[in-house]
Amino acid sequence: MRRLVLAGGGHAHVEVLRRFGLQPEPGAEILVVSPGSHTPYSGMLPGLVAGHYSFRESHIDLRALAGFAGARLEPARVAAIHPGARELVLEDGRRLSYDVLSLDIGSVPPVGAIDGASEVGTAVKPVEGFLAALHQRIHDPAFRPATVAVVGGGAGGVEIVLSLHFRFASARGDSPGRPPRFTLVAGPSGLLPGHPAAVRRLLADVLAARDIGCRQGVSVSRAMPGGLQLTGGDEVGADWIVWATGAAPAPWLRGTGLALDDRGFIRVGRALECVSHPGVFAAGDVASVDGDPRPRAGVFAVRQGPPLAENLRRALRGLPLVPFRLQRRALSLISTGDRHAIASWGPFAASGRWVWRWKDRIDRRFMGTYALAPDNVTPGGPPVA
Questions:
Q1: Distance of alpha carbon 298 from alpha carbon 40, whole angstroms
Q2: N or C: which end of the chain has fewer CB within 10 A?
Q3: For 38-90, how does the pLDDT look when each residue is reduced to its tens digit (9 = 90+)?
Q4: Measured distance CA(216)–CA(202) in Å, rounded
Q5: H helix or E strand, kind and range, residue 289
Q6: If we measure between CA atoms, which residue out of 28, 13, 25, 23 comes closest to residue 65?
Q7: Residue whose C-alpha is closest to residue 58's, from 73, 70, 43, 68
Q8: CA nearest 268: which of 295, 287, 292, 293?
Q9: CB 112 within 8 A of CB 327
Q10: Helix/strand/coil for 113
Q11: What is residue 140's three-state secondary structure?
């Protein structure tokens, strides 16, 4: 019996589990290590924050999916890996051996260089902590903020500030009243770097129409109770700071001996196997594909699922791995909080309610792939979008 350990419940691993459930692998024991029994779908997170989706609609039941695959779910976090001994160490000190290991553990906001950031504010990841903080600030008058600063000018930061703005403006919970004033600190690269100018203009217009301040071309140098200090000395007042600042790897990866890129992400080849350690695979945010870099976005993690499943199966059987290449360009659908969205594709942009309905259909179809009613568990795989 050969043991496959899936560390993390990210988008690529849920597709691995679905495929191993549809086609069980004889002689394989599958163990899933994840701190929670539900994994959030990133495409629906802005809608969940805005109040358009429920927890159930926007989370995949990882325990049920593991059961479908004949796998066992171990509720824990990984703290270390010893690839020479083929074992990983959990935060509670337990050790688990493996024959084949795959990591899809996501990323953390890169705020370590900002003075005070680890003590002040709330990071969007891990999502469960952010959702708990949001619930408290919506429903408990003692925690309801008058000012909110969201740090991060990428699509994630933009979607979060607009979703929070909509959620607070429409809240009818235990503490109704004047919604907070919002500021987006977009950083030195400005608003939506990497997107076409037309998309950036559309988003800037939306922020202005909602009276959301946007600070571009500056970084946060210090976080403190009550606000942020920016490079150049300016300050932004904030009762609640939300960190949505892109992706950094888990710090403990630097002690594993695995090959890492200059930022600390795991270097893998086009078969998603670590370039330094055969039998160790990585996908999603934690992986850096040598010679084929891509943005750290959910759409790319989703598309890594099928080839990752195939190569994990081949590794268990001792067969040669199959390389693959992700597409260069991906459609980006950026929600604006209020059931509107903006489409970004190459140099093209479009916006409106119809874009949000399009995005909603794509997201619901993806989630339906992992709803384990017999009619939904089909070999078609997740939608490509």
A1: 11
A2: N
A3: 999 999 999 999 999 999 999 999 999 999 999 999 999 999 999 999 999 99
A4: 16
A5: strand 287-289
A6: 13
A7: 43
A8: 287
A9: no
A10: coil
A11: coil
